[in-house]
Amino acid sequence: MTNGVNVRELILNVLLEVTRDGEYSHIAIKNTLDKYQYLEKQERSFFTRVCEGTLENMILIDYIINQFSKVKVNKMKPVIRCILRSSVYEMKYMDSVPVSATCNEAVKLAQKKGFHNLKGFVNGVLRNISRNLENISMPDKEKEPVKWLSITYSIPEWLVEKWKKCYEVSQLEEMFQAFLDKSATSIRVNTEKITKEALKEELEQEKITVTENEEIPDALYIGGYDFLAGIPAFIDGKFYVQDVSSMLVSLWAEPKEGAQVLDVCAAPGGKSIHMAQLLHGTGMVEARDLTEYKVSLIEENIERCGLKNICAKQADARVLEEDRIGTADIVIADLPCSGLGVIGKKPDIKFKMTNEKCLELVELQREILHTVQRYVKPGGVLMYSTCTINEQENEENVQWFLKEYSEFVLEKQQQILPEKGKNDGFFLARMVRKL
User: Fold this and answer.
1) Which residues lie across from 261 on neighbouring strands?
2) Could you state, in order of their start, the residue ranges of all structural domains in the chain?
3) What pTM value is reported for the model?
4) pLDDT tens, 368-395?
5) Which of 213, 266, 268, 308 makes the best surface tag, with the fewest CB within 10 Å?
């Protein structure tokens, strides 16, 4: 271990932050990696994989633990619960780590955290699981498809039920597997600074793997790097990390040079910056968000990318600004949503979201749309998008909007499902105000 840092203890701390304290997993993981930047690449990789893997597979892991523990997972002390979860993840998914090492380290960690009296319990449960890991009794796929999908892919049953109304079981299996599979990082070339070919060459010289995206000209996939902030091309703003589904928003908007663009919920700024890039220095993109912190994220990315035809502003998208009525050629409304399309990147979403919260978000989305549609010029475009897979927030919201605001017409909409190694789940709709 680097400088005496116990990586498994760091993993435990993150799992406690997420499952006990309610922190978002990507934030907890990033904060820890930022704090311990001196960890070796292999340690960083182990830390990230076990944190993410444990959270991604938590329903299955809990199901396994409950088969071999007299004390059920939800009755355990949080520290013991998290130690067992990450240890079972190691045993089931990481062949390179000896089972004996996993068990020994779990017992040591329990003792270090003050649970000397439970070291025998931890050891017994893990040794029992290790002997029976290949013989776990699973629900019957044909008789209990919802329960089988839920446990196999660690998706809460209410979500499986919700999606099963819209998609076949085979589609759900593909989607759930895409959530679990590790994808390469999707990036967009900042063509105002560098060509795609030159960027590809520069990254490959850094020993980073680069593959092309056949559908979107300025998109690439990268892998094999340690962390983004250590890539010179990233620091220099030569590329922006953005999912390919998200890139479609600006492409579908088809901005013409000189366009006035308003992005009402813009942080951290990817779509706004893409739009400014497509305008080639003309027009103006105003990227707004609710809090000072979110606006600072946008400003940081604008500065890094070096674009001049874009600015950031703090504003509440629900509050109408009279002087902006009818002034925008394009309004981007990428609104707060349940995030069910990005479970692959943020696995704790599936445990935090509920159907009730989804319905609350629908009301917020409609409140914002009611306000921001007034900024669109006659002939202008309203791009509505979310990073979720939920008819209520997506197709039904579009239907509601067109009924409420008959001066708009829907030109196209698409629900994109997560695809292994390619993209997140995403929804977008292009609506145009009649002349």
Assistant:
1) 285, 330
2) 2-137, 244-433
3) 0.91
4) 999 999 999 999 999 999 999 999 999 9
5) 308
- Contact between 180 and 57 under an 8 Å Cβ cutoff? The reply is yes
Burial of 22 (0-12, 13-18, 19+ CB in 10 A): exposed
| Superfamily of structural domain 244-433 | Vaccinia Virus protein VP39 (3.40.50.150)
Query: What residues act catalytically?
Result: 387
Give the residue carrying structure tokens 């080639």. 280
pLDDT tens by residue, 232-257: 999 999 999 999 999 999 999 999 99
Helices (H), 133-240: 145-153, 157-164, 169-180, 196-205, 232-235
**Tokens 């994220």 map to which residue?**
297
Short-list 161, 159, 155, CA closest to 179: 155
Count Cα neighbours of 253 within 13 Å in the Cβ-side half-sphere. Answer: 35
Number of Cβ atoms within 10 Å of the Cβ of 23: 16
Architecture of domain 2-137: Orthogonal Bundle (1.10)
Task: Give the chain's length.
Answer: 435
Other Cβ atoms less than 10 A from the Cβ of 19: the count is 19
DSSP 333-353: EE-----TT-TTT-TTHHHH-
pLDDT attached to residue 4: 62
Asked if the domains 2-137 and 244-433 are classified in one and the same CATH topology, the answer is no
Q: What is the pLDDT of residues 412-430, one digit of tens each?
A: 999 999 998 789 999 999 9
Q: Phi first, then psi: what are they for 140, rounded to 5°?
A: -75, 125
